[in-house]
Amino acid sequence: MAAKIPATVVTGFLGAGKTTLIRHMLENANGKRIALIINEFGDLGVDGDILKGCGIETCTEEDVVELSNGCICCTVADDFIPTMEQLLGRDNPPDHIVIETSGLALPQPLVRAFNWPGISTKVTVDGVVTVVDGKAVSAGQFAHNVAAVDAQRKQDENLDHETPLAELFEDQIACADMIVVNKADLLAEGEADHLRAVLKSEARKGVQVVTATMGALPVNVLLGQGVGAEADLDARHEVHHHHHDHDDDHHHDDDHDHSHEHSHGHDEFESFVVELGEIEDATAFAEKVADVIRAHDILRLKGFAAIQGKPMRLTLQAVGPRVDTYFDRPFGMAPRLTRLVVIGQAGLDMAKIEAALKA
User: Fold this and answer.
1) Distance, CA of 138 to CA of 150 (rounded, Å)
2) Nearest to residue 238, comparing CAs of 334, 168, 178?
3) 5-235: CATH topology
4) Of the given ranges (235-239, 255-259, 309-313), which has the lowest mean pLDDT?
């Protein structure tokens, strides 16, 4: 059976920088064909225009779908499911699907929709990425412009409740596999680290919290998380357990002052290679790798290992502390070495990490 197509759900309030993050990802997709589902509301097809106009050959008109009948988690059956079926049924289905929810959408009902018959066999939730406005959250607000978030609620005549922003925020954090603290360049020296620690303590175990400027995250950090979130809904508990219509934003994410904008560099991330000799025990080694990842807050680790007495090489892939291993092919004439690529935020202690892996 063909492998399932991975889908990444991007959530976060109005103004957090979801569109900027996605646009940066498209510009650096390295040939990966990414289809986008954008949950617009009202008649301002702004995000769609921003993304369609990106002039990137891997992102064609047919790869951008806008759902504008209201909030995506309220219109799952009428809107989202048919759109997914259409994308999955294409002759040339995309390599990856990215769904940008509206600012006030609850991520949980959307993730639950991936268990629908007909869809569940073809697609899987690669990961839920929640984007937060680092500056606003650090200052004790959820959004750069709370008034704008409230104004957007009033646009929806179907609105029959007022979900407090605090609860929506908790839901977005509870469902996340990765939390992106955006606008990190606006935070003072210790502020970003403090905020990361706070969000880490509020999120589920093993959830990665990264900082970014202008949504600039490497594609290999953002995509390929391989979480399978739809099979793990119990852990992503919602604050409120009944679903109701709620309003939606239709502003684009670039309505705040970008005078601080600077290069989209990936200076915040770095990677390096650790080479080791043969490993005695594959299981013990995988456990050690997981311990090192936890101790040093490593985002990704991948590579292969030579295990004593085994002709095949052991492939290792880790996203956060979750390490997957399998034997893939014989070494043949290649030297029996263990080579691991370590990816993390800038400032990784390479010497310590190398020493810990060699210990």
Assistant:
1) 20
2) 168
3) Rossmann fold (3.40.50)
4) 255-259
Q: Which residues lie across from 341 on neighbouring strands? A: 273, 302
- Which pair of structure tokens corresponds to residue 254? 């670039």
How far from chain centre, in Å, is Cα 4? 18
Beta strands 178-182 and 208-211, pairing class: parallel
Which pLDDT score, from 0 to 100, does residue 74 have? Answer: 57
Structure tokens at 130: 């929640």
Check whether domain 269-358 has CATH 3.10.180.10, yes or no:
no
φ/ψ of residue 69, rounded to 5 = -85, 15
Query: How many CA atoms, within 13 angstroms, populate the side-chain half-sphere of residue 225?
Result: 27
Would you list the domain boundaries of the chain? 5-235, 269-358
Residue entry with tokens 């101790």: 295
pLDDT tens digits, 109-162: 788 888 888 788 888 888 889 898 887 777 666 666 666 666 666 665 444 445
Global pTM? 0.71
Query: Residue 298 contacts by C-beta under 8 Å, 6 or more apart in sequence?
Result: 292, 318, 320, 342, 343, 344, 348, 353
**Tokens linked to 162:** 């007022």
Q: What is the CA radius of gyration of the chain?
A: 21
Quickly state the pLDDT bin for 188 (edges 50, 70, 90).
Answer: confident
Indicate the Cα dihedral angle 64, 12, 211, 255, nearest 10°: 80
Q: Which residues contact 211 (CB under 8 A, 6 or more apart)?
A: 134, 180, 181, 182, 184, 187, 192, 196, 268, 345
Closest to 127 measured CA to CA, from 301, 7, 43, 30? 7
> Do the beta carbons of residue 303 and residue 339 sit within 8 Å?
yes
Q: How would you classify residue 291: left for phi > 0, otherwise alpha for psi between -120 and 50, otherwise beta?
A: alpha
Q: Contact at 8 Å (CB) between 242 and 235? A: no
Pair 238, 142: CB distance under 8 Å: no
